[in-house]
Amino acid sequence: MAAPTIATLHDRVRGPVITADDEGYDEARKVHNAMIDRRPRAIVRAANVGDVMAAVDFARENSLALSVRGGGHSVPGFGTCDDGVVLDLSGMHSVWVDPSARTARAEGGATWGDFNAATNAFGLATTGGIISTTGVGGLTLGGGIGYLDRGFGLSCDNLLSAGVVTADGRFQVASAEENADLYWALRGGGGNFGVVVSFEFRLHPVADIYGGPMFFELDAAGDLLRTYREYIATAPEQLGGFPAFQIAPPLPFIPEERHGEPFIAFVACWTGPMDEAERALAPIRDVAPTVAEHVGPMPYPALNSAFDALVPPGLQHYWKANFVTELTDDAIAAHLEHGPKVPAVNSTMHIYPINGACHRVASDETAFAYRDANFATVIAGMWPDPADNEANIRWVRDYYEATAPHSEEGGYINFMAGDDQGRIRANYGGNYDRLVSVKRRYDPDNLFHLNQNIRP
Ligand SMILES: Cc1cc2nc3c(=O)[nH]c(=O)nc-3n(C[C@H](O)[C@H](O)[C@H](O)COP(=O)(O)OP(=O)(O)OC[C@H]3O[C@@H](n4cnc5c(N)ncnc54)[C@H](O)[C@@H]3O)c2cc1C
After folding, report:
1. Any ligand 1 atom below 6 A from CB of 78
2. Where in the chain is the domain with CATH 3.30.43.10?
3. In the prediction, which pLDDT does 6 show?
4. What is the average pLDDT score of the chain?
5. Which CATH class is domain 7-88?
6. Is residue 363 a contact partner of residue 430, using CB atoms and an 8 Å limit?
7. Cα(456)–Cα(453) distance, rounded to whole angstroms?
8. Can you give the residue ranges of the FAD-binding PCMH-type domain (predicted)?
9. Residue 36, ligand 1, Cβ within 6 A
10. Is the pLDDT of residue 3 over 70?
């Protein structure tokens, strides 16, 4: 494309347009996963909804690839592209809370840190991710799994309405009353249907929680996973949290001589009455003595940012994921073989519970289909040095291959690597055909294809 065309883009938007000629281009093209090294023609830092409309129009009119970036956490790097336009929403991150209606409206580029800080001021929260730097946008559109999902459902289950710029450059509202098919598809269908410039969420009274990480010796891992499987099936829904294979980071609450060793951890989040918290955690505690722990009352945003330092920008990422209905003894045996081999302090494997309120939504009520699954697993490979890519990717793949036979065919789209595009149909089960028909209606030419793509 000749330079004058980019000049037109400059004229059409209020936010900065960054190209390879600009200082800051290399910084602006980065996404969270440092393995992704792409060179877009232009990065538009949208300042408002008008900029979003203009960038969408510009990409469509010039037949350019369009990447939509919220928090930039997509592991396959969907938030950037070669040769196309990156629509970077990070400048649009305001959050407004209506405490009397118990709702909040977040702009399309807000992170969970932005969101939780705003809502916690009113003693309110909704289900979001476990790391504060993840974007509200990508996480919610894929479903949204986090500490609060057993009690309040997935993030997308709390989405009341969305303001969307569709492929034709028009602003449309999606809710139960308006464009109900689009509203259905946005709740789990990923970034396939348009650019969401605002998300309206239902909030719940959650201010301080009781929780944090507990580290147990690896020889307790089998008992812990079996106890977790039984207990979480009927545990009070105020209990969230997950088991993890985790190398001990150099934190003051962990004995120094144990830093760098692998453990089985349990990260807890109790949102019920404080004086009932320890009773709720007792079945997990009774498995074995903890080697180290940092458990107690804290504001919900403190837990949401407690592990941010383990996943700074600039790591290499390779992830695999599955939904699990029954965590069988054979599955646990596979975890016991591969989990303790976790190769880097940043890497981990989590088994998130997605029962409770998530199960009270029917499989066809939202695009997120796996409403009978009890768990979502993620094998999250994250490490600093590209020289270690092969060994770390191997760990993720071996672990995945050992656990996949004990899992559902599909997995959570937000936990998947770029080489999982072949699993899209399985990820949506019976909802896939309906997603295709909504895609045909709102994006017939597949302008929004840099995602876990539903082809029109
Ligand atoms: C460190 C880390 C922790 C994570 N923890 C969790 C977790 O606890 N729970 C969980 O469910 N997931 C989690 N994830 C996965 C996360 O949900 C996905 O990576 C998600 O895509 C991140 O959204 P983002 O906006 O940050 O990403 P981006 O890379 O900015 O966006 C990813 C894709 O989402 C779409 N998108 C983003 N914003 C918009 C928007 N406003 N409008 C339209 N499309 C948009 C686009 O298709 C975009 O390409 C985590 C990921 C990382 C790296």
Report:
1. yes
2. 7-88
3. 86
4. 97
5. alpha beta
6. yes
7. 9
8. 36-206
9. no
10. no
Residue 90 has pLDDT above 80, yes or no: yes
Start and end residues for every CATH 3.30.465.10 domain found in the chain: 95-205
CA of 192 to the centre of ligand 1 (A): 13
Centre of ligand 1 to C-alpha 2, Å, is 32
Res 4: pLDDT: 53
Give, in degrees to the nearest 5, the angle at Cα 283 between 360 and 149. Answer: 25
pLDDT > 70: percent of the chain:
99
Mean pLDDT of 25-38: 98
pLDDT digits (tens, 9 = 90+) for 116-146: 999 999 999 999 999 999 999 999 999 999 9
> Could you tell me where in the chain the CATH 3.40.462.20 domains are found?
208-418
Q: For the residues of 261-277, what is the DSSP string, one character each?
A: -EEEEEEEEE-S-GGGH
Query: What is the 237 CA–ligand 1 centroid distance (Å)?
Result: 25
Q: What's the CATH architecture for 208-418?
A: 3-Layer(aba) Sandwich (3.40)
> Pocket of ligand 1, candidates 35, 139, 193, 382: which has the most ligand atoms within 8 Å of its Cβ, to mutate?
139
C-alpha angle 385-221-236 in degrees, rounded to nearest 5: 105
Structure confidence at residue 389 (pLDDT): 97
The answer to whether the CB of 134 is under 6 A from ligand 1 is yes
Summarised one tens digit per residue, pLDDT across range 351-387 is 999 999 999 999 999 999 999 999 999 999 999 999 9
Query: Measured from the CA of 154, which atom of ligand 1 is nearest?
Result: 11
Among residues 312, 308, 316, the alpha carbon closest in space to that of 383 is found at 316
- Whether 333 shows a pLDDT value over 60: the answer reads yes
Query: Using CA atoms, how far apart are residues 114 and 132, in angstroms rounded to an integer?
Result: 8
Does the Cβ of 79 fall within 6 Å of ligand 1? yes
By alpha-carbon position, which residue is closest to atom 15 of ligand 1? Answer: 414
Q: What is the CATH number of domain 95-205?
A: 3.30.465.10
Bridge partners of residue 353, in order along the sequence: 375
Atom nearest to 130 CA in ligand 1: 8
For the Cβ of 196 lying below 6 angstroms from any atom of ligand 1, the answer is: yes
